[in-house]
Amino acid sequence: MRFSAGERPFSTYALFTFFVRGFLGQPQLEDALIGMDLVIIPAGVPRKPGMTRDDLFNINAGIVKTLCEAIAKCCPKAIANFISNPVNSTVPIAAEVFKSAGTYDPKRLLGVTMLNVVRANTFVAEVLGVDPRDVDVPVVGGHAGITILPLLSQIKPPCSFTPKEIEYLTDRIQNGGTEVVEAKAGAGSATLTMAYAAVKFADACLHALRGDAGIIECAYVASQVAELPFFASKVRLGRGGVEEILPLGPLNDSERESLEKAKKELAASIEKGISFIRKSVVDDSSSRK
């Protein structure tokens, strides 16, 4: 969309010129990345019926490694949004690649867990009979199975649920991706909802890059909130990426118990990503001998 000065449609709006360029394949990867401020990485194979996020690991890990090497070379100051599954492992992979390149800035590396929040807001709104846009459910931990921890005790506006409702909501939020994969019966995964979540999170990052204040979203980032190298929680975004990592806040007994289970699962996923890079370094060294 392009408007000249004489074609301004609304006098109260600033003028923008939008340029869209296409790039194809690895030979044009560096051209696509040069000068970028925000890079969004959805690359990878989708889940299929019976496939866990761990099943995706070996394929998607290699793709992420290649893309991160190019980012480190062409736009090391860019904010990178990672969607490629399994996010619990691919974000640690990205961190290790950036560390090796000497470009690692934990504030600029974000795993996109917005889809968990979108699902949580939607499912809770269905139970309450309200508009999902009026609901805010913090979802912390990670982006797979039991590592996805909706803090139903901290919902805004405040409300309470029966134990049966909590069990139902938690299960749907944690297994929403599997539900979609099975419903499509091999024809795809949660592409539309993930696209919506990706755009929603990217828009938040762009507003933060512009200097807008008060941009708070959940994201999977380098954090010590739960004594783990990476953890998803609410963060305040700014021009440099993550400006502040917000505390988890008060948890009820059930949420504390779920958090402990999530941390064990998440720790293993993080180590899996780090081990992949370490093995890749050894393999690369051996191949050059």
TrEMBL record:
One of its GO terms (cellular component) is chloroplast. Residues 24-111 form the Lactate/malate dehydrogenase N-terminal domain. One of its GO terms (biological process) is tricarboxylic acid cycle. Substrate binds at residues 47, 53, 85, 119. NAD(+) binds at residues 60, 83-85, 194. Residues 113-276 form the Lactate/malate dehydrogenase C-terminal domain. The keyword Iron does not apply. InterPro entries: L-lactate/malate_DH, Lactate/malate_DH_C, Lactate/malate_DH_N, Lactate_DH/Glyco_Ohase_4_C, Malate_DH_type1, NAD(P)-bd_dom_sf. Belongs to the LDH/MDH superfamily. MDH type 1 family. This is malate dehydrogenase. It comes from Glycine soja.
